[in-house]
Amino acid sequence: MVTLLKNNQTAINHVSDFINGQWLENNDGGFNYRNIDYDSINRSEYRRFCLKEQENVCCYCGREIADNNFTELEHIIPRSVTTIEGLQPYFALSSILSNNIVLQESFRQSTTQQTLPPFPHHIAYHNIVASCNGKTIQSSENLTCCNRHRKDDFIPPFNLMPKCVGYANDGNVYYIYDENDNQYINPLNLNKVLLKHIRRIWFLFSRSDVNEQDLAQVNNEASILEVITLHLEVNPFKELIDRNIIDSFKTLSNWNTLMKYRYFLNYFRINNP
User: Fold this and answer.
1) Which of 98, 170, 229, 249 has the greatest count of CB atoms below 10 A from its CB?
2) DSSP string spanning 251-265?
3) What is the rounded distance in angstroms from the CA atom of residue 235 to the CA atom of residue 208?
4) 75-133 pLDDT, tens per residue?
5) CB 124 within 8 A of CB 100
6) What gap in Å lies between CA 120 and CA 36, rounded to an integer?
C-alpha cells in the first residue's frame, strides 16, 4: 500500500480557506459554521491532491487510477464515526490523525471561530485518500475490494503507518501486526484470488530483467506470449502452481488488467530483493 505523509501545504490551505469562508453571521447577529459537510466541498480538487501524492495509485490495492469518476475518495476515519471514542482507535495508530482531526459535529457546533488545524473529520485532507472503485474487472459488479468492500469497518490507518503492510512472494498481503488471521486486511478483500495472482505474476516478473520498455511494447496476444515466454516461463522461482496463473494472463483483456498493477514490479524489486 502507498504510505503518505499528508503534508501538502496547498491542500491544507485549500481546506482551511474553505472552512474559514464558512464562518458566517447568523440571524441572531452571532457567527457559526455553515455548510462544512462533505457534500459542500469541491471533491474534484481533493481528488487531484490525492492522486498527485499517491502517484495515481489506489491507496489500498495499488491499481493505477486517474482523475475520473472511477476514482473515489475514501475516509480513513469513516464519516459514520460520531463519537470521540470512535476516533481513538485511529488516533492511537497515527499522529497525523491525532494532530489534525476532530469530530465533525463538535467542530460544526463551535461558538467561536477555530484555529486550524485540527479539521473536522468529514472534510479533513489528512483523513481523505483516493481509492479505485473496487472493480478489478470494470465490467464486473461483484468483484469488489478496497473502500467499496470495507464500507465503515474499522481498519488501521494503513496509509499513514510506514512499513505496516507486507506482500509475500505468493501474492498474499498481510498486516505485519496481525499475520495469522488478517482480520484487518479482510475488510478490504485484498486477498481475493485474482489480486493474489496479479501480485504473484509481478513477483515473478521482478525476478527477471523485464523493464518498462518491454511492457510498453506489448499490444496483442502474440507480444504477450513473447514477453511471458522470455521473462516468466523460464523463471527459476516459478512453482508448478504458477503454470495456470501465467496462462490466465495470456489474453489481451487479462493482460491489460495486470498492467494496471505495475506498482508491484518495483515494490518486489525493492522490498524482496
Assistant:
1) 249
2) SHHHHHHHHTTTHHH
3) 7
4) 999 999 999 999 999 999 999 999 999 999 999 999 899 999 999 999 999 999 999 99
5) yes
6) 8
Non-local (6+) Cβ contacts of 166 within 8 A are 173, 174, 176, 271
The bridge status of strand 165-167 relative to strand 72-75 is: unpaired
Distances (CA, A) of 198 to 1, 203, 218, 236, 242: 15, 9, 17, 18, 11
* Residue 29 binned pLDDT confidence (cut-offs 50, 70, 90): confident
- CA angle 243/244/249 to nearest 5° reads 105
In the predicted structure, residue 272 carries a pLDDT above the cut 90: no
Q: Please choose, from the candidates 98, 105, 84, the residue with its C-alpha nearest in 3D space to the C-alpha of residue 38.
A: 105
Helix/strand/coil (H, E, C) string of 149-212? HHCCCCCCCHHHCCCCEEECCCCCEEECCECCCCCCCHHHCCCCHHHHHHHHHHHHHHCCCCCH
Supply 78's cell numbers: 469513516
Whether 228 contacts 245, CB under 8 Å? no
Cell of 115: 484555529
C-alpha cell at 138: 470494470
Residue 166's CB is within 10 A of a number of other CB atoms, namely 14
Reduced to 3 states (helix: H, G, I; strand: E, B; else coil), residue 120 is: strand
Q: Please, what is the angle between helix 43-53 and helix 9-21, to 10°?
A: 160
The C-alpha cell 501486526 sits at 177
The DSSP string of 82-107 is -SHHHHHHHHTT-HHHHHHEE-HHHH
